[in-house]
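Subject: two folds for Thursday's group meeting

Dear M.,

Sorry for the delay on this. The cluster queue was jammed most of the week, so I only got both jobs back this morning. I'm pasting them in the order they finished. Each block is the input sequence followed by the predicted structure tokens. Could you check whether the formatting survives your parser before we put anything on slides? The first protein is the one we discussed after the seminar.
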Amino acid sequence: MTDTQKYLQATQSIDSDNPRIIELAAGICGDTDDVHEKARRLFMYVRDEIKYTVYAPMYPESQYKATTIIERGLGYCVQKAVVLCALARAAGIPARLVFADIVNYAVSETLIEMMGSNLFTYHSYSEMFLGDKWVQMTPAFDKGLSEEHGFPLVEFDGYQDAIFAPTDARGNKFVEYIKHYGVFADIPFGPMLQSWEDNYGKERLDLWKKASVMGSMSGSKGGI
């Protein structure tokens, strides 16, 4: 199996072989045969139709299955990247997850209080193999959220990398990428949870897990 073929396979979270995913991907791509246009349309769908919220259920692992996230219509960065990879693979485009630590300088005080930091460890975005190269894209913040908070909107043309901007339109710091963990065929769930515990503390992580299981992770949008 070649490297690109590896990233066409369905996984536990990226269930790209599910009939619902296959049908949805086909509907989004429509009648175009151009891989770049397919990628752009899939990105736009995930960016704007799967609404962003940092309060999406983040535990247990079943909350990260692409079909579950699509049905819910909500997700945070990791979950939205999973959906984009699932749709891309269903459309025949190799896709994989990228994980990094970032600092969000525009995060709300409420979220900083909840997390104890403006560091977002194991932030995730997607890469697709388009033409002859891997192209990065961040579908996390939907257009409505970006406009509401004045965040730079991530636009993807199907060709060039499209990740968070370092500054906003006024020149203020927005997002800084400070550490990269590499690329993955599926979510490295164990290391991700361990990083959360290391950076935010076991007590906070246990509370988030409990809230997710009880279905009470809800609140205002914001953050990453």
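Second protein, same layout:
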Amino acid sequence: MARRVSTTRDKLIARYAGRTVLVVTHVTPVKTLVRLALGAPPESLFRMELSAASLSAVAYYADGNASLRMLNDTSHLR
């Protein structure tokens, strides 16, 4: 699953370089994108809480680095 997520991430980064892309998916792929952006180990997936309909944001840079901008934001649901 991590391989599929990273392959799709790489394709999106290449196709939409410098643009904002919204990806709607399930919990585990979101956690995997966050884990990969942070360079965290696989077991970190079990240490993240994601609520239904929450928003998370990762920024990707031309030099290959990434940063987590937001995780599990549910303020839009109130």
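Two things I noticed about the second structure. DSSP finds two helices and two strands in the chain. The beta strands are 55-60, 66-73.

Cheers,
T.
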